[in-house]
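Project channel, design review

CF: Before we commit to the Periweissella beninensis constructs, I'd like one complete example in the thread so the newer folks can see what an input/output pair looks like. Taking VanZ family protein.
RD: sounds good, go ahead.
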Amino acid sequence: MITSIQWLPVIINCSLVLGLFRLLVIQKPILSNYWELITRSSLLSYLIVVIYLTFRPVASWHTSALLFHRVTINLIPFNALTSDFFLNILMTVPLGCYLYLIKRTSLLNMLLIGLGTGLLIETTQFIYDLLFNIGRSVDVNDIITNMLGVIVGYSVITILNKTVVTNIIKRFSLTQYSYI
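CF: and here is what came back for VanZ family protein:
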């Protein structure tokens, strides 16, 4: 049975994201254009959805050889490929796209940002599961798939930016106006 205390991680993370959004976006006196507002607002919406998907409490169902204080941990990559494997890639593709719109960088930096994203989500899930028993498992596959999703998203926008849609991408880009 899921209790109200198990929803605290979602509330905490959403509050942090909303606070950062207020600090970095709403405090700006004037947005450069409406495209920038769309990019920033959709980024905020995306982050809230990711928080919901990754930190909402679930009934614990994972089986693993490793259990640490009721937290299930899988340290064996590609042990069991389920639909979650591919859904995790899909979940972080938009992040790669947003990162391209915010700041162009090298593939190595994208690898590191993708790895950091996966590590941040899994470490935070682990801590929240210890504190609030949210029923999440820590899985090395999630770290790998989060990294792959960021790389795919960044690569797709990089390729699209070399086609006829380059002007559309420039409109949504935050790099020519300001940064988040």
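RD: helpful, thanks. The longest strand covers residues 71-74.
CF: DSSP finds six helices and three strands in the chain.
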